[in-house]
User: What shape does this take?
Amino acid sequence: MAEPALLEAAGLRLSLPDYSRKPPFGPAPPVDILHGIDLALAPGDTLGVVGESGSGKTSLGRTLVRLYKPTAGRLTFDGRDIADLPENRLRPLRPQFQMIFQDPQSSLNPRRRVADIVAQPLRLYGRAATGSEARRQVDALLERVALRPAHGDRYPHELSGGERQRVGIARAIALQPRLVVADEIVSGLDMSSQAQILALLHELRRDLGLALVFISHDLSVVRTVCDRVVVMLNGRAVEQGDCAAIFASPRHPYTRRLLNAIPLPDVDPGWVARTAENELGEKLTMNVRDSVALVTGANRGVGAAFVRALLERGATKVYAGMRSTDGYETPDGRVRPLALDVTDHGRIAEAAAECGDVTLLVNNAGANRNRPISDDDAQRNARDEMDVNYFGTMEMCRRFGPVLDANGGGAIVNMLSILSRVNLPMIGTYCASKAASLSLTQGVRAQLAAQGTLVVAVMPGAINTRMGDMNPPPLEEPADVASAALDAVEAGEEDIYPGTVAAGVSQGLAADAKAVEKQFAAYLPG
Amino acid sequence: MSWTFLLRRLLLAIPTLFGVAVIVFVLLRVVPGDPIAMLIGPGATEADIAELRRLYGLDESIALQFVYYLRDLAGGDFGTSISMRQDVMELVLGRLPVTIELCLVAMLVAVGLGGAMALAGAYWRGRSGEAAVDGAAGFILAIPDFLWALLFILFVVVFALDGLPISGRIGHDVAFRGATGFLLVESLLRLRLDAFGSVLLHTILPALALALPLAAIVARVLKTSINEAMTQDYILMARVKGFSRARIVGREALRNALVPTVTLTGVQFTFLVGGTVLVEKIFSYPGIGNMAIDAVINRDLPLIQGLVLTFAVLFIAVNLLVDVSYALLNPRMRHG
Amino acid sequence: MAEAAAVTGAASPTGGTARRLLANPRVVLGGAVLVFFALAALFAPLIAPHDPVEQDLLLQYVPPAWSDKAEAGYLFGTDNLGRDILSRLIYGARVALFVAVAAAAAAGLLGTALGLLAGYLGGWVDTVISRLVEIWMAFPAVLLSIVLVAVMGTGLHSVIIAIAVIDWTRFCRVVRAETMAQKQQDYVASAVTVGLGRMRILWREILPNVLPLLIVLFTLEMGIAVIVEAILSYVNLSLASDFPTWGGMISDGRKYVNQAPWLMILPILCVIALVLALNALGDGLKDALDPVMRR
Amino acid sequence: MTATPPAVGPTLSVRDLHLAIAGRRRDTPILRGVSLDIAPGEVHGLVGESGAGKTMIGKAVLGIQPSRARIAAGSVLFDGRDITHLPERERRRLMGRGMGLIPQDPMTSLNPAHRIGAQIADVLRLHLGLDRAAAGARTLELLNEVHIRAPERVVRQYPHELSGGMRQRVSIAIAFACRPKLIVADEPTTALDVTVQRQVLALIKRMQAQEDASILFVTHDLGVVAKICDRVTVLHGGRVLETGATRRIVEAPGHDYTRALIAATPRHDRPGGLLRPVPEALTARLDAEALAYDAARGSHG
Assistant: This one.
């Protein structure tokens, strides 16, 4: 970004007390609302924040103007960290960032006349010395938002919805702020008033050079207003960037699903019918917070990353499965080390009995002998790989399916690889075992869906671990893969391809499968 | 309903009880400056006063007195009544069934009367019938229970209704001494219909006086709740489903209207119990309310203390019951 | 509010409200009865035909004017000591209204202050105040007031203190709930973003929105205070017994109900009329003031 | 899509319907001579902004208009039968098997005090005369049809335990339970998130096709109309501005207002800044026309 950012958030987190779970004595436990949001906004820029209900977009907006105090992370306005500023030191800065609220009915004090409401900030900051001076400025502001001075003598309940929202805008711009956060400001309005308010916003931005954070559930509205966009899901920013680019080619499956779901006013009789069969049913989703997870192969690599990600997202307990628990250092009191070799089917049955409270199963354990089919030991290598990757995963699903069902449904994450869909020369047996597990995953999914259990297939490219480091870059970070997999669990995505390589391959396969195969055939590791 | 919820309510009652005990202590021992001044009759000598002081532990420091007080309460020892020279606990327990029976009869009357008024008002919604019910409820509510009691007595005297007793709990000519204080229940169980009739006759007027204000509240809240429920979308859905009007009011609306009604009725029931203090006095009805007024007039400190605490326990118990029934009625509370 | 008026110019901010109040029959009727009693109380020495404590043992139990045994000059008759009942009722109105206003104001101030703080600040302040309210609600109000006055000694001030000490919870609970509801409204969030301080938000933004509710509560509490005062004087704890109070008159009437039923019925009617008027006024105010808040 | 002239008469026919809300001084007109026909198996969209009277038409068709609303003139014909002033008892018989409703807000339209299973089974027992067991079995079938997973669990749950999308599925199951000929869908997806909206639209369309029901689809969203409706009626101020096949209305609108509405609708596939608000002169003209209509009616009415 060429210009220095006006507003910048890094790793912004927010927790609010959850009164529904308040114990008889003591404070209510906190519930995580935002999980580390990063964003930046240049002066005069417009950032759209989109997401569905419960995505945390409104909480984000309120945190940006410091109505909420972030629990962690940095929030700088004009180069100054305001995340932890106490209210009295924040007050001198407040005129510079203002907010327009969703419901003007509630955001305008019903006991005050419009002119008082607009004049209040002016008087508070001494921008208007006398009553008549204030009134003059108020009239100018009202005119600015296309209201008449006569509107100033009315009470909010005497105005229409569109007029009330104009008053909200007039109050927000009264102090000539540099940043305005607009939270769903057109969601309650008719199409015609919505278009008027949006046109007004456009004008104001052009004339006053405002930076704008525009929060909305409506991607179409965001498209008409914003330069840049952040897509939120369960308190995370799953995708952000240039509005035109993201809307033209969304990368995150959730963004794609959001865009696909919007009915554009073009006649298309097949649109409804094209809704994917698996979309017809209520999407199975699961909140990682408060879940009890079991991760296999948890002592290193992606498995260890899963354990960390689960803890970070508020899992109450994580069983860390590994061949041998010797020398394993528990990273957190919530982690229970568990000796579990997925090739030992007797042990799996025992573990299913021991861990009766599991609601989220991550089948991460995998084996890769990294040998070509022509190898002398090919038979044995292939068996080893099948034992772990296929039979191990199958037995885990078989034994833990009933456990999840007994706990009212949950999720199973099967760590596969993009290689379950394409073959790489020289490691053919591995690819075959992964392809088999993908088939298995789809079979398990069909069966467990009826019990309310979501089954996710994670198909990343090569990962930066000891197992994958012989692969050429780009390598995916284990933490990113684990995070993407848990995102999928929370969003109810069934097949995901984390990372640029995997995403590209999966898109390529959909477009021209032969071309991808040829490309891979020409590709030799090492 | 979740057990943790019940447990939570029970646990919360403990600090409340403790708070009540503290306030009673402050009220009766600290505020008056010298509680003995309240106790002494005319013509007491210095020696008498000193003796009393020692007897009630008032020669100790306030802090120590408080500790003794709590210790005694925890052991169920409320002390000895000064005017009756009898154990306070025994006295109170002897009279408690009388008040409980009276309150329950009053409650039944109130719910029956109020419910009928509410249903009538809801049935005649928007017509003059509803206005009549509203007016009646407003009028009844403006007259407190003790004035109702006095009005009833006036009525009986002026119209010489000698059949309606206005004093006592059972006729002097009826030879019936219950083994328990629950005369109504006991006489019925032992098939002493003459005694049952006499007690019921004596109970009618005080119970009605206590019941009327509560009945008005039940009528108001239930009617408002039914009307409120009738404007909800699910009632519209019920109409679209083709349900009859009786079924819509009875099955769809009433069930939802009961939740707020039970909550409010429960809270108001505590006021009914509190009302026994005067109403029992006016009808010379031998319950703990009557006893309380006499205790105040006689400056019987231990008895006052015991009675206030008894009432407090009753109130807390009623509130607990209300919470439980609320949880049972509201599906939102029953699950999760 | 001076600066508000300066900005908005002329038009009285209460103009619409006043019109709505006058259009409400319950407000008008209740208000009229209240004014009637208030005038009687205020000008008692001018209106009362006799000295309310003057006894005339030759004129005991004179029945009211509509009876054929009535005496001229004693509209409502006389009591067991030959005192003029009308005069005693007029002076009784003084006590009733004075206690009603003073006690309701005291209870209202205490309860509102605590309710505002609990509702707005939340946290431990709320926990402590809510606990206190819950403990208070565990006491039987009537008995507690009787005990309180017995402990403090009879007299008007004891009566007023007793009512305030007992009934502040009514205000506190309602004001707390309303404050919490108002605090959720976005106009409070908006005041924060503008940079208003906490106490200023509570005082200037939230309180005006709670005020209509307070007025209603105050009216209803006056009715309750009238009743409690009657109860206390009924059990002879309010004022010296020869001073006229409605409750004391009811108490006397109860003793002689067989000889002279009117002794009891007249003060009872006064209590009922005043309480009905206050309740009607309160309910009417609730309806009349509500639309401004909600719509 | 292109409707061949129906061999049978329309399922629903609204003829010159006038409806007004009775006020203290005078009546406020809500519908000013609305006429529309819905053929068997047709999904008919009713679009307009708030105050256009679109919801009131749906309510008047179902006979659940508020008690202060008075049908001043005109008629509603269902299957050729005049049901405008049907007595209560006969209307109840018509409900369920004749007509159903998919409500706007699934949060408030299911009774919070009853289990999901009972709310569906009650309708089946009332209108189809099924016994308890048969109604229970059919309830499970219906829940399956609306793609609710684990219906055995859902029938025992209360509305507050379900998500918004699930509740709307239950409402759809109730609406289609007795295989009615006509469904009034009153903004059925407005309260839902956009991804859930698509699922619910697909479900409504699928159920409609399966049962060959007609739908009166009330909405403010032109996008939804374009995707699901066969024909559309555009409403403003309680008057029909135009009616026609969806493609004709969306691609070649005949009325200025329709054109303005389309221009004011934001779309995510086009760059920003291109919205044109509905011109105030146009809305003013439409309001004046409505008033003139009232005056003309009043003078000879």
Residues 1-14 of chain C have pLDDT under 50 and may be disordered. Chain C touches chain A at residues 3-4, 6-9, 11, 13, 185-187, 189-198, 205, 208-209, 291-293, 295 (CB under 8 Å). The domain at 26-294 of chain C is CATH 1.10.3720.10 (MetI-like fold).
